[in-house]
Amino acid sequence: MAQRLAGAASQYLRQHAHQPVDWFPYGDEAFEQARLRDVPVMLSIGYAACHWCHVMSHESFDDPQIAQMLNENFVAIKVDREEHPLVDDTYMMATQALTGAGGWPMTIFALPDGRTVHAGTYYPKEPRGRTPGFSQVLQAVHEAWETKREGLEEQADMLAEHLAELGSRQSALLTLESREPAESALSSATERWILSTKPEGGFTQAPKFPPTWALKTLWHSVITRQDSALEAFNAAATSLEAMFLGGLQDHIDGGFARYCVDENWSVPHFEKMLYDNAGLLSLAARSTVLADELMGRASGDESERAQKLAGLARRSAEGIIGFLEEELLIESVANPAFAASLDADSARDAAQIEGAYYSYNREQINQATEALLARLPQGIIRFAPIAEDPEYYCFSLARMPEAAEQPVVDELVAALKTLRSARIRPVRDEKVVAGWNALAVEALCDAFILLEEPKALALAERVATSLWNVHFDEVSGRLARVSFAGRPAENNEGTLQDYAALAVAFLSLKRATGEQLWEDRANRLLARAQDFVDPATGVPRDAVEVDARISAQRSDVAAVSVLDDALPAAGALYAKALAMRAVQGMAESNYTESHAADLERARVLSAHAVALASEAATQVATALEVQTMISSPVHYLALGAWDSAQAMRVRKLAWALGISVHHAPELGGEDTLKIQPCREELCQMPVEGIEQLLGLLQVKG
């Protein structure tokens, strides 16, 4: 049996190389084998940090009898979803259409041309409740292939038609227009977020995923809405406090898990993803500055809450920066960048157990913390039991410690960290994903400006340089989506999300450093991104060249993602890059036709957010952020002073709201800060101080 996965660049694929299953990597060879052998395909789609992927792998793919069934009756393909996101998206659409749900591992049965005939997620080895055992599923699909093939073909045809229709609907979202102004759309979205906020934080029931992109956009309302600012703040603070205090955050090593399994945000699903931490760093940095800004304008309880939230957000941001640098940065290569993830599972007593590295039993807790807990009032520290491992507990905070309590909490955290230090760390997926690293670079630029954290900029520049050196081909102008050990993967061009996210990151670096190099590189990426746009419709696609199996599933539709999920939508990121280029260009030179063209293109690409703001606010949050930037009464500012405390306050506020700033010493203002607000080619008379600027930004609603 060929060991085709042993030399794979993907760590996830290599984890399966030892198995008795005759695995193929995703590609033409595997589907050609299925055609030649006249057997269906079984695709197992997952990623290296996925707990249930490991469970199914051990239960079923290590089993010789199941392996024999697979090898005799199927071509088995192992897919790293992070390496092939469009493959993952397409088969996830099929899985959700057939089952009403989705997740990983994803288990797909397909015809040799790639069209799906059956789909599911995790299958246990033996039947469990209403879920059949994996061997039963294999047998049922094999029998249908042998005796009911015509029915399978018809089912595949109907599903492909359905997926094509879904793709067309998604493309149609980009043509949605609304007569409602963007300002009203943000008010509608804000009202939806206020009403949807749960008492425990977040907008949904458990499992609790952080609504990162929605909360970033909600902060715009906190600062710019006259009537709903305090309601918006309290809604945002409820979620932020739950996320920053609870088990979602690793209070010991820094960084955040992907989600929490319970309503109260106390127990995480322990995998740590780069993209989550990038988004949460950006959110925490903004929350620090904007909560601090609100503190000076609010009164009573809201002012005190804002002050505490600002401190909590800063500590969370600092923890993420430390996590990125110490846990995810791959230093063993000439061009360091961030690894994709840390595994949910780790070793305890020779077994791989979810959360083993992060959890403590009662004896360990008492040994490390009993004396320290005696020095703290009850109601600060929380040790939450883990449902699937009930003798072990997850540490978090139940409330923000007071200033006098913080040193004791720090001692307690240090004691728990000492216990951890003797354990085997979770496995790190060494894959470098361009778009995810780009989100981290953008977030580090946010931290540099908003938190005045110099090492954040140094880290951003280092990783951005590596991405350019390794992932971008100067000759072809193409960007590789992933790299391994400092080498780009072959035949793996980035998606529109990769190009757009990296353009945003480079423009953020230009804005933070003033170095033209970064804008030039962003322009190279955006030039290639134009090739993703369908010339007939003007609608962007996720890929320039569509995989044959995706074409078979979706009738050659590879519509760009326009709705946020764990990542911001590719179409919205593309719009954001264009809007940033225009706004930054206006601040540095006269308003030109190219600036106008970028703004108009960004407006069109994000216009669906205005139409959907009241119905799907969370899903269009990034596009709504772009609409808010474009429609703002202020696109850029000229500042008379640059380094004074008041000037720094204005620069931070402007950065957080997407407003560009440039230094104009001729305005003067050494005694009283002079600020000249501008929109497109028109500049107003200078105003004095930040309060007058905030007055210009206020919108009723």
Automatic annotation (TrEMBL):
Gene3D superfamilies associated with the record: Glutaredoxin
Entries under InterPro entries matching the protein: 6-hairpin_glycosidase_sf, Ssp411, Ssp411-like_TRX, Thioredoxin-like_sf
Pfam families: Thioredox_DsbH
Coiled coil regions, renumbered to chain: 142-169
Transmembrane feature ranges: none
Swiss-Prot/TrEMBL keywords: Coiled coil
Name of the protein: Thioredoxin domain-containing protein
Species in which this protein is naturally found: Glutamicibacter mishrai
